[in-house]
Write a sequence for this structure.
C-alpha cells in the first residue's frame, strides 16, 4: 500500500531533523555548563549573576551557531555540484513563513536576554552617583567629605594615578593594596588625578572607569576570601600595563587587625613598578617614545606585596 | 543547440581562455595610468585596492611586532611606550589606510558596471578623493619619525591621555594623527557624495531600486552612514586638536570640560563606522552565494531593506562602547536594547544566505571558500557581539581581550575574508586574467587556520581578565598569547601565496573570459576587462531582477547580443 | 536607436557629458546635509557644556553683549533676501541686475565678518578661558570660516558670470552657492539663539 511504504520515507527527514535539533540542544546545554570554567573564580555577589547570564548566552549562542553551521555543512556535503556541472539549483526566491520566523524568533530571544540583563543590573546595583568636579584637588575634597554623592559613611577612596592605585580608608589608613572584609558591602569613591583609568577586578566581575573631573560611587560585596588582581582596564598611557595591584579579601577579624596595624606604620612612598620601569628607561638613556613621567608614588602605610601570587 | 553563454561559462580549462590572443584589444595596456591622476573609476578602483593592500602589509608588520612582544608575559621586546605606539598605529593603519580605501576601491570598480553607468557621477572628485589617501598615508607614516614617536593613545585617542603632549612640541605624533584622520574624513565624504549620487541618479534603463544588485544597496546604506556620522567625528577631532594644540578645555576638567563628551562624539561615528565596513562585505556575500550555489538570493527585497535597517539602527547604539564609562544605568539599559535590535536585520541576512545555499549547486572556488569562511566566522562574532551588548557581561569583559577577539573576528575573519572573496571573484573581470586556483585555495587554508588560532584564544584570555592594550601581562595568560602569536605569524605567512598569485596572475596569467563563473549581472555582460566607459553608447535595458538563476528569464533585453559582444574582445 | 526608459537621457549623453548640472546639484545638496551635521554636533556640545559644566563662565565675565551682534545678524539675514533677488534676476536673464545683487550680498557678508572680528577683538576672554570661551570661539570661528568660504565662492561665480555661454547647461553653480549662503544664514540664526539669546 502506498501509505505504508511511503510513511517511513516521509518520516525520515523529520526524524533526522528532530535528532539534529536534540543533539544540538544537548551540546548547547553542555557548553553552557562548561562556560563557567572559562571564567575566574567567583569572589563577589555579582559573579554568579554575571556567570549565569554568560552561560545562558553561551547556550543560546551555541545552539544558533551549531544550527547554522550544521546547515552549511549539510549543503557542503550533499549539495555540491559535480565538476563540470553548470546547472542551476532550486530557483527558490523566497519563503514568507520562514522569513517571518527568522525575524521574529531572534527578536524575541534578544529582547528576553535584554530584559533579564536589566534585572541583573538592578539586583547588582553597583553604580552609585556621579559628581562633576573642576579638577583633581576638588575631586579629593569632594571624595573625602562624602558630599554630593550617595555614598554612606565609611566609603573607601580609590585614587588612580599614572600609574598607581591608592586606597584611603575612612580611618585615614592609606595603602596601595586593597584589603576588604568578606561578606560586607563596601562602597568606593572613585577619583582620578590625571587621565582616564579603569577599576577592574576580574574575580568580582566588576569594572568602572575613573574619570578626571568626576567622583563616582561604586559598591560591591566580596564573598570569598583570597587574593585577587585589580587591573587598570582603561588605557592610561606609557606604563599602563604595570598599573596593577592586589585585592585581599579576608575575614572581618583579620581585616580589622590589618587596619589597626597599618595605622601604626609610618607613611612612606609605595613600591611602584611603573616608577622602577621609568627609572630603568632613564638609565638606558631615555630611549623610547614619549611618555609623561610617572606620578610620584603615593605616601602610604602599606604597600602592595610584590611577591604574593594571586588566584584570579 | 548552442548553450546559452550567460548560463554556461568557461572554466580555466576552456580552450577559448587558453588560446586567446594577447594583448586584449580595447583594454588599455599602459601600466603608467595607475600612477597618475586618472578619472576612470576602474583605474581609481585598482589604485585604491593596490594602495590598501600595501598598507595591509604595513599594518600586518606592526601586528607581527606586537604579537612578538606578547609571546612572553614581560615587556621585553620593545619599550612599553613603543608598544603603545605600535598598537595605536596598527589599528589606525588597518582602518583608515587598508579597510576604508579597499572598500572604496570595490565601490569604484563595481558600482558603475553593476548599474550600467559609464563612470561615477563626478570623475574628477573621484580621483581627488583617491589621491588624498597617499597624502595622509605619508602624514601618518611621518609620525613615526617625529620626536616622541607616533600617536600612542590608541586609535580612539581618548583625552586626557591624547592631549598630554609630554614633549610639549607643536608638531607631535598625535597632531599628525589628527591631521591624517581629518584628511581621511574629507576623502570619505567626497567618496560618499559621489557614490550616493551615482547610485541614485545613473542606473541603466529598467533598473529600478529593487532590481539593483545587493552590493549597490549595501554600498548606498554604508555611504549614507558616512554622510551622517563622519561630521560628528570631525567635530570631536577639531575639539581634540584645539585641546592638544591651542590650550582649550573642551575635555579638560580644570576648565570645566568633560572627557566623556569626546567619547560620545567619537563613538557616534565610530560605531556606525563598523557597519560602513561590514555592509559592503554583506553585499559581496550576497553577490557571491547566488553565483556559487546557482540559486537566487532568498528574500532579496527584505535583504535589501535590512541594509537600511542596519543603517538606521547603527546610529542609535554607540553608547555600548561606554558601558563602563561614566554613563548612568538607564542610558546603559536603553543602548543595550537598541544594540540587541541590530541582531535582527543582521540575522535576516545570515539566514537568507544559508537558505540560498540550501539545495543549491555548490562550487568551492576560492571566492566561495572565503565567503563561506567569512560567514562561518561572522555567526560566531555575532554571538559574542550579543554577549558584549549585555550590560552585566560587558562590565566584566569590556576593555579586555574578549573585545579584541570579537572585533578581530569581525574585521579580519569576516570583513577581510569578504574582501579576499571579492578580489578573487572579480579579479578576472577587471584584470582580464585568471588567477591560479591552487594558490588561492592555499591562501584560504592558511588564512582560515591562522585566523582561528589568532583570535579564538583571545576570547578566553579576556574572560579570565586580561585587559587590552597591554604590553605585558600576568603569567596565567601566557598560553593563550602563545597560541595567538602563532596564529598571527601564520597569517603573515599566508599573505605570501596571495601576493604571489595577484602579481604573477596579472602579469602572466591565462586570459580570462567575460564570464568565468557563469554569473548573472550587468558587469558579466562586459568584456574582461571592460572598456573605459563600460557599455559606452549601448546601455542595456534591464528587464528582470538580479540573481535569476534557474528562473529562465534573461537579465536584459537582447541579452545574446551583449554576451556575444563581451566575448569578441 | 536606444530608446531610454524612465525618462533617462539618451545613453550616449551619459557617456560624453562628464558631470552635467543635474548631478552637480544632487551632489551638493547631499554634501550640505552632511556639513550641517558638524554644526549640529557643535551645538550639542555647547548645550551639554552649558547645562552641565561645574564652572561655566570665566571669572569676571558677566555675559555677552547682544545689541551689536544683533545688528550684524540682521545684515547677514537680509543678505539672504538679496541673494534671492540675484538668483531671480539671473533666472530672468538680467545679468547686470544679477551681478549687482550678487556683489551686494558679498559686501553684506563681508560686513558681517568684519563685525565678528571686531567683537572678537573687544571680548574680555579668549579661547583658553574655560569651556565657555572654547565653545564660543569654536562656534563663531567655524561659522565665520563658512561665511568667508561663501564669499569666496560667490566671487568665483561672479567671475564666471563674465564667461560667454556660462549658463548654457543651467545655473547649478549659482543655485548651489546660493543654497550654501542660506545654509550659513540659518546656522547663524541658531547660533545667535544659543549664544546670545539663551544666556544664563
Amino acid at each position: 500500500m502506498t501509505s505504508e511504504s511511503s510513511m517511513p520515507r516521509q518520516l525520515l527527514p523529520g526524524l533526522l531533523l528532530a535528532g539534529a535539533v536534540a543533539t544540538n540542544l544537548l551540546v548547547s546545554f553542555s557548553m553552557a555548563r562548561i562556560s563557567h570554567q572559562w571564567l575566574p573564580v567567583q569572589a563577589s555577589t555579582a559573579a554568579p549573576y554575571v556567570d549565569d547570564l554568560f552561560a545562558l548566552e553561551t547556550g543560546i549562542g551555541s545552539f544558533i551557531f551549531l544550527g547554522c553551521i550544521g546547515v552549511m555543512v549539510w549543503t557542503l556535503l550533499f549539495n555540491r555540484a559535480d565538476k563540470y556541472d553548470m546547472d542551476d539549483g532550486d530557483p527558490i526566491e523566497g519563503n514568507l513563513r520562514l522569513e517571518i520566523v527568522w525575524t521574529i524568533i531572534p527578536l524575541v530571544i534578544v529582547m528576553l536576554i535584554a530584559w533579564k540583563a536589566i534585572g541583573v543590573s538592578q539586583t547588582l546595583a553597583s553604580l552609585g552617583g556621579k559628581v562633576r568636579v573642576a579638577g583633581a584637588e576638588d575631586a579629593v575634597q569632594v571624595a573625602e567629605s562624602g558630599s554630593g554623592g550617595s555614598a554612606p559613611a565609611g566609603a573607601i577612596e580609590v585614587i588612580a594615578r599614572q600609574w598607581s592605585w591608592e586606597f584611603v580608608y575612612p580611618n585615614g589608613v592609606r595603602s596601595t593594596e586593597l584589603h576588604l572584609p568578606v561578606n560586607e558591602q563596601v562602597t568606593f569613591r572613585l577619583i582620578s588625578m590625571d587621565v582616564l583609568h579603569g577599576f577592574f577586578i576580574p574575580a568580582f566581575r566588576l569594572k568602572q572607569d575613573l574619570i578626571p573631573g568626576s567622583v563616582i560611587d561604586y559598591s560591591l560585596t566580596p564573598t570569598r576570601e583570597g587574593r585577587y588582581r585589580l587591573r587598570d582596564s582603561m588605557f592610561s598611557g606609557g606604563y599602563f600595563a604595570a598599573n596593577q595591584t592586589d585585592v585581599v579579601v579576608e575575614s572581618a577579624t583579620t581585616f580589622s587587625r590589618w587596619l589597626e596595624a597599618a595605622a601604626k606604620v609610618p607613611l612612606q612612598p609605595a613600591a611602584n613598578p611603573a616608577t622602577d620601569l621609568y627609572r630603568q628607561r632613564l638609565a638606558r638613556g631615555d630611549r623610547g617614545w614619549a611618555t609623561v613621567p610617572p606620578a610620584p608614588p603615593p605616601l602610604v602605610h602599606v604597600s602592595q606585596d610584590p611577591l604574593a601570587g594571586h588566584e584570579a | 543547440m548552442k548553450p546559452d553563454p550567460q548560463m554556461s561559462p568557461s572554466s580555466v580549462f576552456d580552450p577559448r581562455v587558453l588560446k586567446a590572443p594577447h594583448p586584449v584589444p580595447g583594454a588599455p595596456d599602459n601600466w603608467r595610468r595607475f600612477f597618475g591622476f586618472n578619472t576612470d573609476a576602474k583605474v581609481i578602483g585598482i589604485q585604491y585596492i593596490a594602495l590598501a593592500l600595501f598598507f595591509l602589509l604595513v599594518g600586518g608588520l606592526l601586528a607581527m611586532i606586537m604579537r612578538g612582544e606578547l609571546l612572553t608575559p614581560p615587556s621585553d621586546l620593545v619599550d612599553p611606550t613603543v608598544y603603545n605606539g605600535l598598537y595605536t598605529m596598527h589599528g589606525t593603519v588597518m582602518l583608515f589606510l587598508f579597510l576604508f580605501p579597499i572598500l572604496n576601491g570595490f565601490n569604484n570598480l563595481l558600482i558603475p558596471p553593476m548599474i550600467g553607468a559609464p563612470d561615477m557621477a563626478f570623475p574628477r572628485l573621484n580621483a581627488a578623493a583617491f589621491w588624498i589617501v597617499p597624502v595622509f598615508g605619508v602624514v601618518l607614516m611621518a609620525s613615526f619619525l617625529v620626536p616622541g614617536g607616533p600617536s600612542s593613545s590608541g586609535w580612539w585617542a581618548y583625552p586626557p591621555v591624547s592631549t598630554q603632549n609630554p614633549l610639549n612640541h607643536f608638531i607631535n605624533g598625535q597632531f599628525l594623527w589628527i591631521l591624517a584622520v581629518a584628511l581621511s574624513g574629507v576623502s570619505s565624504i567626497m567618496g560618499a557624495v559621489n557614490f550616493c549620487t551615482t547610485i541614485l541618479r545613473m542606473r541603466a534603463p529598467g533598473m529600478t531600486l529593487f532590481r539593483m544588485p545587493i552590493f549597490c544597496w549595501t554600498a548606498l546604506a554604508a555611504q549614507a552612514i558616512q554622510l551622517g556620522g563622519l561630521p560628528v567625528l570631525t567635530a570631536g577631532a577639531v575639539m581634540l586638536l584645539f585641546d592638544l594644540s591651542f590650550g582649550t578645555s573642551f575635555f579638560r576638567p580644570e576648565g570645566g570640560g568633560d572627557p566623556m563628551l569626546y567619547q560620545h562624539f567619537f563613538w557616534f561615528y565610530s560605531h556606525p563606522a563598523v557597519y560602513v565596513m561590514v555592509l559592503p562585505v554583506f553585499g559581496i556575500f550576497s553577490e557571491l552565494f547566488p553565483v556559487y550555489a546557482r540559486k537566487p538570493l532568498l528574500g532579496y527585497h527584505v535583504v535589501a531593506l535590512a541594509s537600511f535597517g542596519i543603517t538606521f539602527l547603527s546610529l542609535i547604539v554607540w553608547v555600548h562602547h561606554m558601558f563602563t564609562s561614566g554613563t548612568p544605568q538607564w542610558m546603559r539599559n536603553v543602548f543595550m536594547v537598541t544594540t540587541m535590535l541590530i541582531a535582527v536585520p543582521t540575522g535576516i541576512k545570515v539566514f537568507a544566505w544559508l537558505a540560498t545555499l540550501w539545495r543549491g549547486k555548490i562550487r568551492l572556488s576560492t571566492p566561495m571558500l572565503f565567503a563561506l569562511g567569512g560567514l562561518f566566522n561572522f555567526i560566531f562574532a555575532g554571538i559574542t557581539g550579543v554577549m558584549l551588548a549585555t550590560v552585566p557581561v560587558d562590565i566584566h569583559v569590556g576593555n579586555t581581550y574578549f573585545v579584541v577577539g570579537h572585533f578581530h573576528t569581525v574585521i579580519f575573519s569576516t570583513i577581510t575574508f569578504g574582501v579576499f572573496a571579492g578580489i578573487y571573484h572579480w579579479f578576472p573581470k577587471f584584470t582580464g586574467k585568471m588567477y591560479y586556483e591552487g594558490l588561492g585555495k592555499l591562501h584560504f587554508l592558511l588564512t582560515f587556520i591562522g585566523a582561528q588560532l589568532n583570535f579564538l584564544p583571545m576570547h578566553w584570555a579576556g574572560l579570565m581578565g586580561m585587559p587590552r592594550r597591554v604590553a605585558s601581562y600576568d603569567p596565567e595568560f601566557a598560553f593563550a598569547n602563545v597560541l595567538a602569536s602563532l596564529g598571527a605569524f601564520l597569517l603573515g605567512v599566508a599573505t605570501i601565496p596571495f601576493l604571489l598569485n595577484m602579481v604573477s596572475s596579472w602579469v602572466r596569467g591565462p586570459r580570462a573570459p567575460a564570464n568565468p563563473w557563469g554569473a548573472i549581472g550587468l558587469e558579466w555582460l562586459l568584456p574582461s576587462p571592460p572598456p573605459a566607459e563600460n557599455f559606452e553608447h549601448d546601455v542595456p535595458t534591464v528587464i528582470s531582477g538580479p540573481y535569476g538563476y534557474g528562473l529562465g528569464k534573461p537579465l536584459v533585453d537582447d541579452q545574446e547580443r551583449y554576451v556575444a559582444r563581451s566575448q569578441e574582445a | 536607436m536606444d530608446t531610454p526608459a524612465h525618462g533617462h537621457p539618451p545613453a550616449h549623453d551619459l557617456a560624453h557629458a562628464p558631470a552635467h548640472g543635474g548631478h552637480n546639484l544632487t551632489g551638493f545638496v547631499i554634501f550640505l546635509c552632511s556639513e550641517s551635521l558638524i554644526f549640529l554636533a557643535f551645538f550639542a556640545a555647547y548645550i551639554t557644556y552649558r547645562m552641565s559644566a561645574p564652572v561655566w563662565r570665566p571669572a569676571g565675565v558677566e555675559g555677552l553683549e547682544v545689541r551689536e551682534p544683533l545688528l550684524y545678524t540682521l545684515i547677514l539675514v537680509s543678505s539672504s533676501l538679496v541673494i534671492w533677488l540675484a538668483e531671480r534676476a539671473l533666472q530672468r536673464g538680467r545679468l547686470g541686475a544679477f551681478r549687482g545683487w550678487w556683489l551686494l550680498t558679498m559686501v553684506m557678508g563681508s560686513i558681517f565678518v568684519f563685525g565678528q572680528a571686531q567683537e572678537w577683538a573687544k571680548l574680555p576672554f579668549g579661547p583658553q578661558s574655560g569651556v565657555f570661551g572654547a565653545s564660543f570661539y569654536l562656534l563663531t570661528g567655524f561659522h565665520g570660516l563658512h561665511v568667508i568660504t561663501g564669499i569666496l565662492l560667490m566671487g568665483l561665480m561672479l567671475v564666471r558670470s563674465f564667461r560667454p555661454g556660462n549658463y548654457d547647461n543651467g545655473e547649478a553653480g549659482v543655485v548651489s552657492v546660493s543654497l550654501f549662503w542660506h545654509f550659513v544664514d540659518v546656522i547663524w540664526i541658531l547660533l545667535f539663539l544659543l549664544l546670545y539669546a539663551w544666556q544664563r
Notes: The radius of gyration of chain C is 21 Å. Residues 53 and 67 of chain C are 27 Å apart (CA to CA).
